[in-house]
Amino acid sequence: MKRLVIGFSVVAAAALLLTACSGTGQAPQSSTAAGHKYTYAVITHAGPGDAFWDRVKSGAEKAGADYASTVTYSSDADPAKQSQLIDNAVAQKVDGIVVSMANPDGLETSIKKAVAAGIPVVTINSGLERSAEFGAITHIGQSESIAGAAVGAKLASYGAKNALCVIQEAGNVGLEERCKAAASKFGGTMTNLQVDGTNDSEVKATIKAKLQADPTIDGVLTLGGQFALDAVGAVSESSSKAKVATFDLSKDVVSDISAGTILFAVDQQPYVQGFLGVTALYLNSINGNIIGGGQPIYSGPAFITKDNATAVAKYAANGTR
Questions:
Q1: Per the confidence metrics, is the pTM higher than 0.90?
Q2: Where do the domains of the chain lie, and which CATH numbers do they carry?
Q3: What value does the mean pLDDT take over residues 44-53?
């Protein structure tokens, strides 16, 4: 019996040795060590210089690294050009596409072509209401109507009665929905103010001019963290007493919340949107999974106030919140 066991061990060891030495004479590598097995395209509507989308990109790239997959990131605020990016990804036969839909109508044809080509699509951030209609396997983001309504009610709880809702991207249906929902629960007057989100100096100047023209404005709601900082500057320079609140975070926004110059921020966790977008595609690639059960996966909203700002400060500092 001992001779049989010893003989079997020798044969097994020899077989392993032959396997390791076959071909190149080197031990075989796992698929992870050998290189990236899948390629995913992340295509957003981000405009130049928008820090929010840097976090989405970081989350997507982290997921790609974790799953030994290649993640390519591209963006264009012009729906026609964003559609071209989607078409290019389809032509390259990527294994999946993550896309934000600020202008769903402008992307519909390209997204449906991707789905028809057998490429799974996950939508993130914008376009929740049209995602399933276009054939996406899931949507990851926040409900703008739910988040907006919560923000309007919270801003009103601080006593504001005449507020601006600052929209930094023209034609972005998600941003417009935020303002509409916020106004529905605000109770006072909320007026939309269109600004050019690619130019922070202009954003601040536009808000400042509005505050100077109407001293009764007592609230400013911005829809991106960096624009909240512009609003804080506009309030200071115009000697206004308006209170500032915002969607989305940054290190400086958290600092201003702690200092009391920003009332609160609503965090929809862009890093999560990028990371889970790629994760959803990867699970579909390796196991045929479709997460969400046909429903969107909410990444927010979560309120950051003076009470909990310190707890998230370290994450904001490293660029993941």
A1: no
A2: 36-142+269-290 (3.40.50.2300), 144-267 (3.40.50.2300)
A3: 88
